[in-house]
């Protein structure tokens, strides 16, 4: 089976690529392991930045649809200490460059903007191999396979396409999130809702080993990421199949913290979910292999830093634009795309720039910035 462009993975990067190709009249087929668009929750809030994610939305021709997804007021920010004492607060006056949307809504926007049948659901890639002459074959869990002259791996941290280009594999960075939700928080947990406020909240106990991050999603739903710096063996000793026991074990690491903060663990309405953080080598590059490339986490996975989804979308948009700009010359397009993508991957987020984008002008204590690290969703 042959397709003009084959994309493995229907995350934000793969779907942005498919949409930009569609805008330019280039057909593509996306293969996704999940059985349907609603097979699992898609993570929480995303702040879409005006210097990367928004550029991708514009390239996809979906700015009007995007504006309709923005949740007003969610750029507000609160920094607390372990006692619940407010250290810093920033309101959302609508002028910030990081509007917040739900990841699931953003993904649905992209899916709705593609021709019916573009995404083939329930097709889990298990391996890929090079056939020569720029052609590659991807095999799926059901035994079927597809051969393509242009393969884009948008299949995340554990990409099955990446081995065609490099032997690099993700490594654990020593930290993980434990993810929880509180529903109807304004009514059932008013103190916790007040602590989080109308946007995002971050708190730690004075060291980088424990922190609690949370944000308000639609309505009065609170989504928390409990950050712990521990070896994987420590987490492996926790029975996450027993939600109550797992929550109690995690909460024990926050003994003495304000109850309105620990309620994000102990009163959660969902079972705690472990999200270990992995990274690929910073500045990862590979030699050009005809007919194949990577976007998003498949290419430059890092621990959550607020940029992952934005960069994946920008990758997808720029690859689509490069292919449109070089009709009939796939290799020229891939060379152009990878040059820009490698540059981004070799230059991690500049802390001073991120400070300014988060807090605006003025002096911001460094410790407040440190508290904000890792505030993007786990994916």
UniProtKB/TrEMBL annotation:
<keyword id="KW-0547">Nucleotide-binding</keyword>
<dbReference type="GO" id="GO:0005737">
    <property type="term" value="C:cytoplasm"/>
</dbReference>
<comment type="subunit">
    <text>Monomer.</text>
</comment>
<keyword id="KW-0285">Flavoprotein</keyword>
<keyword id="KW-0560">Oxidoreductase</keyword>
<dbReference type="GO" id="GO:0004497">
    <property type="term" value="F:monooxygenase activity"/>
</dbReference>
<keyword id="KW-0503">Monooxygenase</keyword>
<feature type="domain" description="FAD-binding">
    <location>
        <begin position="3"/>
        <end position="166"/>
    </location>
</feature>
<keyword id="KW-0963">Cytoplasm</keyword>
<dbReference type="InterPro" id="IPR002938">
    <property type="entry name" value="FAD-bd"/>
</dbReference>
<feature type="binding site">
    <location>
        <position position="47"/>
    </location>
    <ligand>
        <name>FAD</name>
    </ligand>
</feature>
<dbReference type="GO" id="GO:0046677">
    <property type="term" value="P:response to antibiotic"/>
</dbReference>
<feature type="domain" description="FAD-binding">
    <location>
        <begin position="291"/>
        <end position="326"/>
    </location>
</feature>
<feature type="binding site">
    <location>
        <position position="297"/>
    </location>
    <ligand>
        <name>FAD</name>
    </ligand>
</feature>
<keyword id="KW-0521">NADP</keyword>
<feature type="binding site">
    <location>
        <position position="40"/>
    </location>
    <ligand>
        <name>NADPH</name>
    </ligand>
</feature>
<dbReference type="InterPro" id="IPR043683">
    <property type="entry name" value="TetX_monooxygenase"/>
</dbReference>
<dbReference type="Pfam" id="PF01494">
    <property type="entry name" value="FAD_binding_3"/>
</dbReference>
<comment type="similarity">
    <text>Belongs to the aromatic-ring hydroxylase family. TetX subfamily.</text>
</comment>
<comment type="function">
    <text>An FAD-requiring monooxygenase active on some tetracycline antibiotic derivatives, which leads to their inactivation. Hydroxylates carbon 11a of tetracycline and some analogs.</text>
</comment>
<protein>
    <recommendedName>
        <fullName>Flavin-dependent monooxygenase</fullName>
        <ecNumber>1.14.13.-</ecNumber>
    </recommendedName>
</protein>
<dbReference type="InterPro" id="IPR036188">
    <property type="entry name" value="FAD/NAD-bd_sf"/>
</dbReference>
<feature type="binding site">
    <location>
        <position position="103"/>
    </location>
    <ligand>
        <name>FAD</name>
    </ligand>
</feature>
<dbReference type="GO" id="GO:0071949">
    <property type="term" value="F:FAD binding"/>
</dbReference>
<keyword id="KW-0274">FAD</keyword>
